Amino acid sequence: MARVVLGVSGGIAAYKACELLRRFTESGHDVTVVPTAAALEFVGAPTWAALSGKPVSAEVWTGVHEVPHVRLGQGADLVVVAPATADLLAKAAHGLADDLLTNTLLTARCPVVLAPAMHTEMWEHPATVANVATLRSRGVVVIEPAEGRLTGADTGKGRLPDPVEIFELARDVLERSTGAATGGTTGGTTGGTSGAAPLGDLAGRRVVVSAGGTRERLDPVRFLGNRSSGRQGYALARAAAARGAEVTLVAANVTLPDPAGVKVVAVESTAELRDAVLSASVDADAVVMAAAPADFRPLSTSETKIKKADDGSAPSIVLQQNPDILKEISTHRSRPDAVIVGFAAETGDHTGSVLDLARAKLARKGCDLLVVNDVSGGAVFGSTDNEALILGADGSSTEVPHGSKSALAHRIWDLVAVRLAGRS
């Protein structure tokens, strides 16, 4: 059980933090809600107290004998602020402490996650841009806002990400920091708003992740596809964001919620996936091809639905090969120092074992790392768990035992981060 401080600042999205609080408490965490005075204008203290099971105050003077303005930050394992207004970001960046929440941020030495929500003009203002850059340089995880409907009729970037996705990212940050503190394999150090080592070993890095399975149209209602759910790619995107990276996720036919702080580009076919990946990877430090592109597409498609024949015969479909995206981005790199990661879903056949086929694929594709999944019997697809063998072009081999797809994602980024550091 972790001790979590949930800060809430004064924006209309404050009501969404109730769902975030519920996620933390139902996961067994000890949550203390610290709203600002402005936040209490949107959601009252009785609501926070009822949901958290603890008294709630925005003032440093409440329970002053317990020195809450110091103790809350000192004792926290994680601080999350959602929503974080432009005013809160400015105070955190400049070390101002005029209420209980900003005092807590100044004394915290644990991971800090801020989920901004404001109008687009406020988010894009040079002052806010500078404040966010300052906070990130200190190891604070500042989530990119989502795009969508804002207050009133306005739309644009500045919307609070889905609370469920904020929770998933925050849990990723917490698990990673706990693993580091206990000598686990997740690695890395954590940092609060000042003084500590940075949380993100991918801070300042731009990464591209592909996810899902492409579809190749046969007619207006039918397509060739595969069973990829996109869960592993989404776990990779979420993990990279938690580690401080700027993430573009190219998603092929995925129905999962957009990960918090991640730019999502939706595609359908392999050709669309190729175009989106090539465009996004021009200035990327790393590209992880976790999607399952269709190897073939129909030579021609029907503009009308293909009908059944009265004589019971089936139509013939002539296939042609799709472009090999992984080989293309590995062979013709936009940046020579970029790290390219591929995935191999293998079953083994008469020509060789899963490992034999994977090693041959690594050599053929030219990528730096190849994550090998044995998918015999349909394993992995749609599951929340995974296990893999990660082969390196340098001859390395890393076994990742059965566990969550998030755990595998972090292990992949561990290996990517080491290679990026070696090429800097």
From TrEMBL:
Known EC number: 4.1.1.36, 6.3.2.5
Segments for region (Phosphopantothenoylcysteine decarboxylase): 1-206
Chain segments carrying region Disordered: 178-197
Keyword Lyase among UniProt keywords: yes
Domain of life according to the entry: Bacteria
Domain Flavoprotein span(s) in chain numbering: 3-172
UniProt GO molecular function: FMN binding; metal ion binding; phosphopantothenate--cysteine ligase activity; phosphopantothenoylcysteine decarboxylase activity
One GO location term (cellular component): phosphopantothenoylcysteine decarboxylase complex
Pathway(s) per entry: Cofactor biosynthesis; coenzyme A biosynthesis; CoA from (R)-pantothenate: step 2/5; Cofactor biosynthesis; coenzyme A biosynthesis; CoA from (R)-pantothenate: step 3/5
Region (Phosphopantothenate--cysteine ligase): 207-424
Single Gene Ontology BP annotation: pantothenate catabolic process
Catalytic activity: (R)-4'-phosphopantothenate + L-cysteine + CTP = N-[(R)-4-phosphopantothenoyl]-L-cysteine + CMP + diphosphate + H(+); N-[(R)-4-phosphopantothenoyl]-L-cysteine + H(+) = (R)-4'-phosphopantetheine + CO2
Cited Pfam families: DFP, Flavoprotein
Record-annotated DNA/pantothenate metabolism flavoprotein C-terminal domain positions: 202-417
Residues the record lists as binding CTP: 295, 305, 323-326, 343, 361, 365
Entries under InterPro entries matching the protein: CoaB-like_sf (IPR035929), CoaBC (IPR005252), DNA/pantothenate-metab_flavo_C (IPR007085), Flavin_trans-like (IPR036551), Flavoprotein (IPR003382)
Gene3D superfamilies with a match to the protein in the record: CoaB-like, Flavin prenyltransferase-like
Bound cofactor: record note: Binds 1 FMN per subunit.
Known cofactor(s): Mg(2+); FMN
Gly residues composition-biased segments: 181-194
Function: Catalyzes two sequential steps in the biosynthesis of coenzyme A. In the first step cysteine is conjugated to 4'-phosphopantothenate to form 4-phosphopantothenoylcysteine. In the second step the latter compound is decarboxylated to form 4'-phosphopantotheine.
Name assigned to this protein: Coenzyme A biosynthesis bifunctional protein CoaBC
Species for this entry: Nocardioides faecalis
Organism lineage string: Bacteria, Bacillati, Actinomycetota, Actinomycetes, Propionibacteriales
